């Protein structure tokens, strides 16, 4: 099992979420995040200085079976792509154990409903 975390543009969130759903990745968590990129600039508007070095993004997080990792990564790459600097990052981590609280299912079986 792998945990995939992707930091993407807010404007691409709905597109990425819908694409993941179509790729059979139906459970994911997300939250608003802020970060700092390579840009070093400020903005002055009507005499007030604004810091525009921080960037608003969304972080997606979900766990998939090993056989679904590449499909999930490819889906995010296609849906989140704009070709401009700041499209985001994808991180993949190993998951040692997964347990469904309600049933006690462990491992891959705990990730999705049995069919």
**Mean pLDDT figure:** 88
Uncertain stretches of 5 or more adjacent residues: none
Mass-distribution shape: elongated
Spatial arrangement of strands, main beta sheet: 2-5-1-6
Structural class: alpha+beta
Proportion of residues in β-strands: 35-45%
User: How do the SSEs run, as a string of H and E?
Assistant: EHEEEEHE
Task: Say how many strands there are.
Answer: 6
Rg, alpha carbons: 17 Å
The amount of helix comes to 10-25%
Largest sheet: 4 strands, antiparallel
Spatial separation of the terminal alpha carbons: 19 Å
Count of helical regions:
2
What's the gist of this structure?
By secondary structure, the protein is an alpha+beta fold. The protein has helices at 13-22, 69-80, and strands at 2-9, 29-36, 42-45, 48-51, 54-64, 88-94. 19% of the residues lie in helices and 37% in strands.
Break the fold down into its secondary structure elements and pairings.
Elements: E1 2-9, H1 13-22, E2 29-36, E3 42-45, E4 48-51, E5 54-64, H2 69-80, E6 88-94
Antiparallel strand pairs: 1-5, 1-6, 2-5, 3-4
Please describe what this structure looks like.
With 115 residues, this protein is an alpha+beta fold. 19% of the residues lie in helices and 37% in strands. It has two helices and six strands; from the N terminus they run βαββββαβ. It has helices at 13-22, 69-80; strands at 2-9, 29-36, 42-45, 48-51, 54-64, 88-94. A four-stranded antiparallel β-sheet has the order 2-5-1-6, covered by helices on one side. Strand 3 and strand 4 (48-51) form a beta hairpin. Helix 1 packs antiparallel against helix 2 (69-80). The mean pLDDT is 88.
């Amino acid at each position: 099992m792998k945990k995939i975390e992707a930091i993407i543009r807010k404007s691409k969130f709905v597109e990425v979420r819908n694409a993941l759903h179509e790729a059979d990745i139906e459970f994911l968590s997300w939250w608003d995040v802020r970060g700092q990129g390579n840009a070093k600039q400020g903005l002055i508007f009507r005499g007030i200085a604004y810091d525009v070095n921080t960037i608003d993004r969304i972080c997606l997080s979900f766990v998939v079976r090993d056989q679904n990792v590449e499909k999930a990564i490819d889906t995010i790459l296609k849906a989140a792509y704009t070709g401009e600097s700041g499209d985001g990052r994808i991180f993949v981590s190993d998951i040692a154990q997964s347990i469904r609280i309600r049933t006690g299912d462990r491992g891959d079986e705990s990730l999705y409903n049995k069919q």
